[in-house]
Design a protein that fits this description.
Layout (H helix, E strand, L loop, with lengths): L5 H5 L5 H15 L3 H27 L2 H15 L5 H13 L4 H18 L15 H16 L10 H14 L4 H11 L9 H14 L3 H20 L1 H10 L10 H13 L1 H6 L2 H13 L14 H8 L5 H13 L3 H13 L4 H12 L8 H12 L2 H4 L4 H18 L12 H4 L4 H24 L7
């Protein structure tokens, strides 16, 4: 298991009462009272499940939660005690609160709690079962991660409404896509029971690719990102789901919806392979009207090299970023950055050189290795449309500053022979840039020197 902190997990417990009750469990564990800790933990688990059922019943008007709570109440009124024994099985089978692993873990806790509370009748020794410290901590960890820190909406009936409502609230709160991804990963994705995944995907598909009204349109990109995150997190399960489901071929032929559909196929190419003729016809019809979108469709090319060869020369600022991101999947990002420098070198006018510098060079200099800088110098030296343009001086100053900082200051290489690249070095403010970089680095170096000079006085 990965490193785990009970203290940090306690702060994430969703239900206030469950949190207060769990603190008693933790006190028992810390005191070495492992039998008491396991017994109390089971009680906390049961009350937390009941609390989640009550929340789902109220917040989502869930009929199954209502029936379960009614059955529990009736058993309590008849003073029957077996409701505790069946509650885990009931919410697993009827509400889909847990995946199979969580279900088995809770059944195991239930069994051990019984052993801790009731003596085993032996011929020679009637002792209560005592769990080990490691076993007790394992029970605590599973209860926290699988149940106590998980939000209430994880049922077959309530989850889809809960998530769709939450997506709307997060969008209205002004979250961008990156912040949104972070929230949903922590709040939902890592907690999704596998049994819920097919239901949730099917529901999200409707709101991403079928339905349309002003509210749905506003949330479409966020709904889609949630769907993308589920597929990313459960790739094999999603492949199995999509192999069986025909709805992947059913998409409303609206350009805004099809744009998101292309984004899905671009990110998960295996889905395109599963489309039937009707699904592929929808894609083909859209791309016929929107040729520029083909750059986002590597699934139409024989391989990544063919796709790059066709579309890299046609890239703009946005699409080159996409191609670089795509190249990371195939571990060829450096090769694509080199191809970008070559495109810059192939510029046929001053304006084209300015544009190509902006598309292929400017944003990526910080990631250049030494060979890429050398390539930049070579293509700049051999094309008059590059070195005669007015912006050549400004471009070179930017390039040289990063080159000098990365390889002269931080890595200590010897200077490039300026005689080999006269066009570049006659159009760069070399002395002032070097002075500026050294001044920027000086405070950090002075701080490090001061720190090392007082090393004898440090308490470590």
């Amino acid at each position: 298991m990965t490193p785990f902190s009970i203290e940090l997990a306690i702060e994430k417990i969703v239900d206030k009462n469950s949190k207060e009750n769990f603190l008693e469990v933790y006190k028992c564990y810390e005191a070495g009272c492992y039998r008491a800790a396991v017994g109390l933990l089971w009680s906390v688990v049961v009350t937390d499940i009941v609390s989640k059922l009550q929340k789902v019943e109220i917040d989502f008007i869930d009929s199954t939660a209502h029936k379960l709570l009614t059955e529990i109440k009736e058993k309590q009124e008849r003073k029957e005690t077996d409701w505790e024994k069946s509650i885990v099985e009931d919410v697993h089978k009827r509400m889909k609160f847990f995946d199979q692993d969580t279900y088995e873990n809770l059944l195991h806790l239930q069994k051990k709690r019984h052993l801790c509370s009731h003596p085993l009748v032996q011929e020679t020794d009637n002792k209560l079962y005592t769990p080990t410290p490691e076993e007790t901590k394992s029970f605590i960890r599973h209860a926290l991660e699988d149940l106590l820190i998980v939000p209430a909406g994880f049922s077959r009936h309530a989850l889809k409404d809960s998530i769709l409502m939450d997506i709307d609230k997060l969008r209205e709160a002004g979250l961008d896509i990156d912040a949104f991804k972070d929230v949903i990963q922590k709040r939902y994705i890592k907690h999704l029971p596998k049994e819920i995944v097919p239901i949730l995907i099917k529901e999200l598909w409707k709101f991403c690719f079928i339905k349309s009204d002003p509210k749905i349109d506003e949330n479409r990109h966020f709904n889609a990102e949630f769907l993308f995150q589920i597929i990313t997190h459960y790739p094999e399960q999603c492949k199995e789901i999509f192999q069986k489901e025909d709805y992947i071929n059913k998409v409303t032929t609206d350009d805004n919806i099809l744009y998101v559909y292309i984004a899905l196929l671009s990110r998960f190419e295996f889905i395109y392979d599963l489309l039937d003729s009707s699904g592929r016809a929808i894609v083909s019809s859209y791309l016929t009207k929107h040729e520029k979108m083909k750059i986002y469709c590597p699934f139409l090319s024989k391989n990544i090299s063919e796709h790059l060869k066709e579309f890299l020369p046609k890239a703009n600022h946005e699409t080159f970023k996409y191609l670089l991101k795509l190249s990371e999947k195939f571990s060829i990002k450096n090769e694509v950055m080199m191809l970008g420098i070559e495109e810059y070198g192939n510029s046929t006018s001053y304006d084209e050189a300015d544009t190509n510098f902006n598309i292929y060079i400017e944003d990526y200099l910080i990631d250049y290795n030494f060979a890429m800088f050398q390539k930049y110098l070579e293509v700049s030296e051999n094309n008059s449309q590059i070195y005669d343009r007015r912006k050549f001086y400004g471009s070179n100053n930017l390039v040289y500053k990063i080159l000098f900082k990365k390889f002269a200051i931080l890595m200590g290489y010897h200077e490039i022979d300026s005689k080999k690249f006269p066009k570049f070095f006659s159009n760069v403010d070399k002395a002032n840039i070097e002075k500026q970089v050294k001044e920027e680095e000086k405070p950090e170096k002075d701080f490090l020197s001061a720190l090392l000079s007082t090393a004898d006085d440090l308490p470590f």
